Amino acid sequence: MDITFKTEELRDECNTDKLAKKKWGAANAKKLRQRLDNMRSATCLFNLYSLPGKCHSLDQDRAGQYAVHLDGGWRLIFEPAHDPVPRNADDAVDPLKVTAVRIVAIKDYHD
User: Fold this and answer.
1) Contact criterion met (CB below 8 Å) for 104 and 6
2) What is the mean pLDDT of the chain?
3) Which residues lie below 8 Å from residue 82, measured CB to CB, with a gap of 6+?
4) d(Cα 70, Cα 63) in Å, to the nearest integer?
5) What is the pTM for the complete model shown?
Protein backbone atom coordinates (compact mmCIF):
# COMPACT_ATOMS: atom_id res chain seq x y z
CA MET A 1 0.00 0.00 0.00
CA ASP A 2 1.24 3.48 -0.79
CA ILE A 3 1.61 5.80 2.22
CA THR A 4 1.77 9.58 2.17
CA PHE A 5 1.68 12.06 5.04
CA LYS A 6 -0.44 15.12 5.73
CA THR A 7 2.66 17.22 6.44
CA GLU A 8 6.40 16.92 5.91
CA GLU A 9 6.89 17.28 9.67
CA LEU A 10 4.63 14.29 10.33
CA ARG A 11 6.46 12.29 7.64
CA ASP A 12 9.81 13.04 9.25
CA GLU A 13 8.55 12.19 12.74
CA CYS A 14 7.09 8.90 11.54
CA ASN A 15 10.15 7.87 9.56
CA THR A 16 12.89 8.92 11.99
CA ASP A 17 13.13 6.73 15.09
CA LYS A 18 14.79 9.44 17.19
CA LEU A 19 12.07 12.00 16.36
CA ALA A 20 9.28 9.47 16.95
CA LYS A 21 10.68 8.52 20.37
CA LYS A 22 11.04 12.17 21.34
CA LYS A 23 7.50 13.07 20.25
CA TRP A 24 5.51 9.97 21.32
CA GLY A 25 7.80 7.88 23.54
CA ALA A 26 9.70 4.65 22.92
CA ALA A 27 6.70 2.30 23.14
CA ASN A 28 4.67 4.32 20.62
CA ALA A 29 7.68 4.68 18.30
CA LYS A 30 8.10 0.90 18.26
CA LYS A 31 4.40 0.26 17.56
CA LEU A 32 4.39 3.00 14.92
CA ARG A 33 7.22 1.29 13.02
CA GLN A 34 5.33 -2.01 13.18
CA ARG A 35 2.05 -0.48 11.98
CA LEU A 36 3.72 1.40 9.11
CA ASP A 37 5.53 -1.80 8.06
CA ASN A 38 2.18 -3.62 8.13
CA MET A 39 0.58 -0.90 6.01
CA ARG A 40 3.40 -0.97 3.48
CA SER A 41 3.11 -4.75 3.11
CA ALA A 42 -0.69 -4.67 2.71
CA THR A 43 -2.12 -4.50 -0.78
CA CYS A 44 -5.32 -2.73 0.31
CA LEU A 45 -7.22 -1.38 3.32
CA PHE A 46 -9.08 -4.68 3.69
CA ASN A 47 -5.80 -6.43 4.58
CA LEU A 48 -5.30 -4.13 7.57
CA TYR A 49 -8.39 -5.55 9.29
CA SER A 50 -6.63 -8.89 9.82
CA LEU A 51 -3.30 -7.43 10.99
CA PRO A 52 -2.34 -6.41 14.54
CA GLY A 53 -3.50 -2.95 15.59
CA LYS A 54 -7.28 -3.38 15.41
CA CYS A 55 -7.86 -1.25 12.31
CA HIS A 56 -11.23 0.47 12.59
CA SER A 57 -13.17 3.29 10.98
CA LEU A 58 -13.84 6.48 12.89
CA ASP A 59 -16.95 8.61 13.09
CA GLN A 60 -18.20 12.04 14.12
CA ASP A 61 -15.55 14.69 13.41
CA ARG A 62 -13.22 11.98 12.05
CA ALA A 63 -15.72 10.32 9.70
CA GLY A 64 -13.93 8.95 6.64
CA GLN A 65 -10.78 8.28 8.63
CA TYR A 66 -9.39 5.08 10.16
CA ALA A 67 -7.15 4.27 13.09
CA VAL A 68 -4.87 1.53 14.34
CA HIS A 69 -3.78 1.13 17.96
CA LEU A 70 -0.33 2.11 19.09
CA ASP A 71 0.50 2.09 22.83
CA GLY A 72 -2.05 2.98 25.50
CA GLY A 73 -4.74 5.25 24.05
CA TRP A 74 -2.55 6.45 21.19
CA ARG A 75 -3.72 5.86 17.63
CA LEU A 76 -2.24 6.19 14.15
CA ILE A 77 -4.96 7.99 12.18
CA PHE A 78 -5.16 7.78 8.40
CA GLU A 79 -7.54 8.23 5.48
CA PRO A 80 -7.82 6.89 1.95
CA ALA A 81 -5.53 8.84 -0.40
CA HIS A 82 -7.79 8.55 -3.43
CA ASP A 83 -9.78 11.23 -5.22
CA PRO A 84 -12.50 10.17 -5.37
CA VAL A 85 -12.46 7.60 -2.58
CA PRO A 86 -13.48 4.18 -3.99
CA ARG A 87 -17.00 3.25 -2.90
CA ASN A 88 -19.14 0.15 -3.20
CA ALA A 89 -22.80 -0.07 -4.26
CA ASP A 90 -23.93 0.93 -0.75
CA ASP A 91 -21.79 4.12 -0.99
CA ALA A 92 -19.49 2.85 1.75
CA VAL A 93 -15.71 2.99 1.31
CA ASP A 94 -14.62 -0.11 -0.61
CA PRO A 95 -11.68 -1.46 1.43
CA LEU A 96 -10.63 -3.78 -1.40
CA LYS A 97 -10.01 -0.78 -3.69
CA VAL A 98 -8.24 1.51 -1.22
CA THR A 99 -4.59 0.97 -2.10
CA ALA A 100 -3.14 4.26 -0.84
CA VAL A 101 -3.50 6.04 2.49
CA ARG A 102 -2.51 9.39 3.95
CA ILE A 103 -1.32 9.51 7.57
CA VAL A 104 -3.08 12.49 9.16
CA ALA A 105 -2.22 12.30 12.86
CA ILE A 106 -0.88 10.36 15.79
CA LYS A 107 -2.76 11.18 18.94
CA ASP A 108 -4.73 9.98 21.92
CA TYR A 109 -8.18 11.19 20.89
CA HIS A 110 -9.75 9.67 24.01
CA ASP A 111 -8.63 12.60 26.21
Assistant:
1) yes
2) 96
3) 97, 98, 99, 100
4) 20
5) 0.95
